[in-house]
Amino acid sequence: MVQQILDQGPVQGRRVMEVGAGSGRDAVALASEGAKTFILDYSMASLETARRVAQKHGVQPFLVRADALRLPFRDGTFDVIFHQGLLEHFRDPMPLLQENVRALVGDGLLLVDVPQRWHLYTALKHAMIATGTWFAGWETEFSIGQLEGLLRRAGVRLVGRYGAWMVPGLFYRSLRAALLKARAARLPLDPPRIPLLTPALERWRALWDGTPVAFRTYFVIGAMGRKGTGPDRAK
Predict the structure, then answer these.
(1) What tens digit of pLDDT does each residue of 123-169 get?
(2) What pLDDT is recorded for position 17?
(3) Engineered SS bond to 20: which of 14, 86, 170, 184, CB 3.0-4.6 Å?
(4) Please, what's the b/e burial string for 118-127 (b: 16 or more CB within 10 A of its CB; e: otherwise)?
(5) What is the pLDDT of residues 174-198, one digit of tens each?
(6) Who contacts 216 (Cβ-Cβ below 8 Å, separation ≥6)?
(7) In this structure, how many other beta carbons lie within 10 angstroms of the beta carbon of residue 137?
(8) Residue pair 139/114 in contact by the 8 Å Cβ criterion
(9) How confident is the model at residue 234 (pLDDT cuts 50, 70, 90)?
(10) How many CB atoms within 10 Å of residue 32?
(11) In the 3-class helix/strand/coil scheme, how is the chain assigned residue by residue?
């Protein structure tokens, strides 16, 4: 997500806000690029994590504890607003997106990153939600068409889309977690390169990246838009 923001222009001196802190690493990276960075979350624990990450990197973003549906900022405050892993937790996503757009300057940039609908991870997630074993409570997911439609309705014109595959893949992650739980073995976070197979997978990703096939196999997808109505720019 950081690179997508930087591709839209320099952030030095710009007001940038991440909604939903997580670890805050992306906001911290943008602060390192000279942005005036704000990190907003309702959880003090999340903000404390972001504070430690920022301290480690020698930057001082503004940490704000507030409700994402009622941002404590005037209209047109920020040049960039972004969030990832957040929108899917709202049963009605429009109030959140509309509040994001309200707080943007006239041509401000909004980036939203969400789980992709057509993925095996989605089926596993819903099975765990149904049995009450999912760690993150209720959440949903989106196709790229749905996500872009939501952003248009919220009041932006689209300027790009992107996605990323799950690397390492779901099978390896599940195997690693199961072995750790059973205390049977500790696999590395990243699997070792396999001659022929690993290079073939990398070539496949490079060939299909950005295509309709990719947007049905990515793990996460994102869309970005500029505040204001009008025709979408080329993706």
Answers:
(1) 888 888 888 877 777 789 999 999 999 999 999 999 999 999 988 77
(2) 97
(3) 86
(4) ebebbeebee
(5) 777 778 878 887 888 888 888 877 8
(6) 116, 118, 143
(7) 8
(8) no
(9) low
(10) 15
(11) CHHHHHHCCCCCCCEEEEECCCCCHHHHHHHHCCCEEEEEECCHHHHHHHHHHHHHCCCCCEEEECCCCCCCCCCCCEEEEEEECCHHHCCCCHHHHHHHHHCEEEEEEEEEEEEECCCHHHHHHHHHHHCCCCCCCCCCCECHHHHHHHHHHHCEEEEEEEEECCCCCHHHHHHHHHHHHCCCCCCCCCCCCCCCHHHHHHHHHHHHCCCCCHHHCCCEEEEEEEECCCCCCCC
Q: How far is CA 140 from CA 49, 81, 116, 147, 187, in A?
A: 25, 21, 9, 12, 30
pLDDT score recorded for residue 200: 87
Name the pTM for this structure: 0.88
Percentage of residues in the chain having pLDDT higher than 70: 99
**What's the farthest any 2 CA atoms get from each other in the chain?**
57
What would the two tokens of residue 85 be? Answer: 């892993």
The single residue listed with the structure tokens 């997808």 is 221
Tell me the two tokens of residue 161. Answer: 């889309």
